[in-house]
């Protein structure tokens, strides 16, 4: 593996572990199986909105959550809508650096989930 690829993998590992290690991150990922605003996520898991926004930012930067677009809130403001990018993640600590195995969500699965929710 090249040195730049190794550095990138280490950076990705650090971002993922940091994001997952934060309080409420796992709950946000579980709640974000369908598209939701930060306010809806905050309400669903009963955490302060400022904390929710910080965790969302960490999860987006780690590639575990994605902004799917924007919609109007009940107050008429445009808000970002988030959904998790994976259904499972496995972390292996047996080597010098952690490695990850992910089960990514497919667009087809997202569409089917959206149809079932409506």
From TrEMBL:
Residues 107-118 have a biased composition (Basic and acidic residues). Pfam families: HTH_20 (PF12840). InterPro entries: WH-like_DNA-bd_sf, WH_DNA-bd_sf. This is ArsR family transcriptional regulator. Transmembrane segments: none annotated. Residues 97-118 are annotated as: Disordered.
């Amino acid at each position: 593996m090249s040195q730049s690829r190794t550095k990138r993998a280490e950076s990705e590992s650090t971002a993922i572990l940091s994001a997952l290690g934060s309080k409420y991150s796992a709950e946000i990922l579980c709640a974000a199986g369908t598209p939701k605003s930060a306010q809806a996520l905050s309400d669903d898991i009963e955490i302060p909105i400022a904390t929710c926004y910080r965790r969302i930012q960490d999860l987006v930067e780690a590639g575990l959550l994605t902004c799917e677009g924007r919609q109007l809130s009940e107050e008429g403001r445009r808000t970002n809508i988030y959904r998790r990018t994976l259904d499972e993640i496995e972390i292996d600590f047996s080597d010098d650096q952690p490695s990850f195995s992910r089960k990514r969500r497919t667009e087809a699965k997202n569409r089917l989930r959206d149809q079932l929710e409506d």
